[in-house]
Design brief:
Layout: E1 5-9, H1 12-25, H2 32-42, E2 46-53, E3 56-64, E4 86-91, E5 94-95, E6 100-101
Antiparallel strand pairs: 1-2, 2-3, 3-4, 5-6
Length: 103
């Protein structure tokens, strides 16, 4: 099987699709996580990149820049806004019916 792997900044549509699939896989997760994550991406506190095989998302990597991000909880040793960024990456599992991968 040939793979067409690309990495690109995740669009708002990508973020919605990834999070909605996550909630299907993990119904106990708080919905506020998506709102906070999208808000922080839009505010420039972090940037999420999608890893795709064709159109199927097979992973994500988020670079967190700001210590104000709730993802690092004000810990400047993890992200200080100038010289230190924190990377959070997740691999995924393919869900054929959704054209998505999550895990």
């Amino acid at each position: 099987m040939k793979h067409d792997i690309t990495i690109r900044p995740a669009s708002r549509e990508d973020l919605d699709r990834i999070w909605d699939n996550d909630f299907e896989q993990h119904p106990h997760w708080p919905r506020e996580w998506k709102e906070r994550f999208v808000r922080e991406n839009e505010a420039g506190m972090c940037k999420t990149f999608g890893i795709f095989d064709g159109e199927a998302a097979i992973g994500t990597c988020t670079l967190i820049f700001s210590p104000a991000s709730e993802q690092v909880g004000g810990r400047a040793e993890l992200a200080n806004g100038t010289t230190i960024a924190n990377a959070r990456c997740a691999s995924t599992r393919y869900t054929k019916s959704k054209g998505m991968c999550r895990g």
